[in-house]
């Protein structure tokens, strides 16, 4: 059987928008007393971080794994957003409930800058930093599922000398939350900062030139050939890629894996590194894009690509906190478009039932892709697209 869904201690990984609002909703709205958020940077923000320094480009800095942890050699994870970034979402959709976005300084600009968005998140997080709910400079390097359904967490504490490696047994912690991953802009910024040609990214439609091993020829579908290219940049878009999360490789409950023998206890990386076009790069086996069906003590806020991530993740994290507090039962919505054609029905706690949401959504995506020629990558399970409003409305109605 699953461990109880009511957690006594909750770990949130990453202080991006998803992690911050979930930390707030758990602490403020649902009154969970023991909530901890680990963030590897020395400030919050996630993809909206305004920090752009690289420790490994600083020739005067030592390798942080071999020297003492000082301001000069702490690892610096670059911001996924380029410094001059201006968003394309209006401020009212970049706001969490009960914490409105401040007025944009430039009266001629509709959208906030990277710095304005980061400052908003920084101010939102301050009460939780002051109370110790948010702990900075702590990097989560590995999360492993245990046979009892709980989690082993490895961290590097960069507040200590040399980034002290620690192992924590979260035997009563029932939650791990991970937000969305970097955008295309982040990889472009990294490519520009690296200042060297990338010839290893070429696929069957590109080739190295005969004249120089550092140049690329790109062969387009219309027959055009672009020659003498210095960079090949393959965008990833918004993708969840928590490669540090490992789960038990079995098709039954975690406790059953332990009783079946040692071979069934092998750990695998949760996210498929070779995704199918219908699913895209996504966190698999999630009920409602949130709860991991094989062990619902782990959850993911912000796993699908969203047009309004602040708003939707505010709703989804509140839904999750209410479900975990046993205020509402775990429900399942209809699995086909439109989502509101029939009332919700209670879901048994069987893994197969929790997996039904994903199965039906993948079938829907399959039908979509078969109905069009050369379907866009946005036609995938990991992108809500036209379903976003209905998805948020369904969760919101259950909350109300």
Automatic annotation (TrEMBL):
Domain of life: Eukaryota
Sample GO molecular function, one term: oxidoreductase activity
InterPro entries, alphabetized: FAD/NAD-bd_sf (IPR036188), FMO-like (IPR050346)
Pfam family, one: NAD_binding_8
Keyword field contains rRNA-binding: no
Alphabetized UniProt keyword annotations: FAD, Flavoprotein, Oxidoreductase
PANTHER family in alphabetical order: DIMETHYLANILINE MONOOXYGENASE
Name this protein carries in UniProt: FAD/NAD(P)-binding domain-containing protein
Origin species: Leucocoprinus birnbaumii
């Amino acid at each position: 059987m699953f461990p109880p869904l009511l957690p006594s201690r909750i770990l949130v990984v990453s202080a991006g928008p998803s992690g911050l609002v979930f930390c707030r909703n758990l602490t403020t709205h649902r009154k969970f007393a023991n909530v901890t958020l680990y963030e590897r940077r020395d400030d919050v923000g996630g993809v909206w971080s305004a920090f752009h320094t690289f420790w490994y480009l600083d020739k005067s800095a030592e390798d942080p794994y071999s020297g003492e942890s000082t301001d000069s050699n702490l690892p610096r994870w670059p911001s996924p957003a380029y410094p001059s970034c201006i968003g394309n979402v209006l401020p009212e959709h970049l706001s969490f409930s009960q914490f409105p976005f401040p007025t944009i300084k430039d009266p001629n600009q509709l959208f906030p800058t990277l710095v304005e968005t980061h400052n908003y998140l920084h101010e939102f997080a301050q009460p939780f930093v002051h109370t110790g709910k948010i702990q900075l400079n702590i990097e989560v390097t590995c999360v492993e599922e245990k046979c009892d359904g709980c989690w082993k967490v490895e961290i590097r504490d960069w507040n200590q000398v040399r980034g002290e490696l620690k192992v924590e047994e979260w035997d009563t912690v029932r939650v791990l939350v991970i937000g969305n991953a970097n955008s295309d802009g982040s990889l472009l910024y990294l490519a520009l900062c690296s200042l060297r040609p990338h010839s290893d990214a070429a696929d069957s439609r590109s080739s190295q030139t005969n004249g120089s091993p550092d140049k690329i020829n790109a062969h387009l579908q219309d027959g055009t050939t672009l020659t003498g290219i210095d960079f090949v940049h393959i965008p990833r878009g918004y993708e969840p890629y928590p490669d540090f999360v490992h789960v038990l490789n079995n098709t039954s409950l975690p406790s059953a894996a332990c009783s079946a023998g040692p071979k069934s206890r092998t750990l695998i990386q949760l996210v498929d590194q070779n995704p199918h076009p219908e699913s895209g790069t996504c966190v698999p086996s999630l009920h409602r894009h949130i709860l991991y069906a094989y062990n619902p003590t782990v959850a993911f806020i912000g796993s699908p690509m969203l047009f309004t991530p602040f708003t939707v993740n505010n709703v989804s994290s509140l839904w999750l906190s209410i479900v975990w507090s046993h205020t509402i039962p775990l429900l399942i919505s209809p699995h086909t478009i439109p989502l509101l054609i029939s009332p919700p029905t209670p879901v048994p706690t069987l893994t197969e039932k929790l997996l039904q949401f994903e199965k039906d959504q993948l079938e829907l995506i399959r039908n979509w892709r078969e109905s069009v020629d050369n379907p866009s990558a946005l036609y995938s399970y990991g992108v809500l697209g036209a379903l976003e409003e209905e998805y948020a409305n369904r969760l919101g109605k259950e909350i109300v």
